[in-house]
Amino acid sequence: MKAPELRTHLNNLLSETEAATEIAKTAERNKKSIGGHGPYADRFHAALLSITGTERKVRPHLNSLGLAAEDLAQFDDNLTILKGTVTKAKGRVAAQRALKLVCETVILPKADGMTASPSPCCRWTWYGEPVATWKPSSPKSTVAMNTSGTTPVR
Q1: What's the pLDDT at 120?
Q2: Distances (CA, A) of 65 to 5, 9, 83
Q3: DSSP tally for the chain: helices H, then strands E
Q4: Please, how many CA atoms are within 13 Å of residue 116, restricted to the half-sphere of its CB?
Q5: Per-residue pLDDT at 98 exceeds 70
Q6: Whole-angstrom distance between the N-terminal and C-terminal Cα of the chain?
Q7: Average pLDDT, the chain
Q8: Which residues of 64-97 are buried (b: 16+ CB within 10 A; e: fewer)?
Q9: What's residue 136's pLDDT?
């Protein structure tokens, strides 16, 4: 996954968790449950499905960013709090803020530093030798790359 894609998914995750928090706050204000069955529970469950889908897209790439273990643990803990059905509004808002803080100050700066794979593409090497080390077999022959970039052309 490239940095812009990861940034988009993280922003989507933050907006989805914010929407779930708003549903839970409204349900708590109206003294309704978000667990079980009911209009708020159904809306909260739909929000949880979208959060979980985005989390599954993002989470595998966080390990490759070289984040500290406590940052990853904080990310996971805050998501667990936000996805739970028993946490009160105050705890949800605190977890939402902490998740946003981790995403914007730790994960996104590391994601912006993501680069492509460190190994070069096969079109720049041939049998493990860089193109610059190729030498023509005779003074009149020249070695060049063909249009597909996979084999030398004489």
Answers
A1: 43
A2: 14, 15, 24
A3: 5, 4
A4: 3
A5: yes
A6: 38
A7: 80
A8: ebebeeebbebbeebbebbbeeebeeeebbebbe
A9: 54
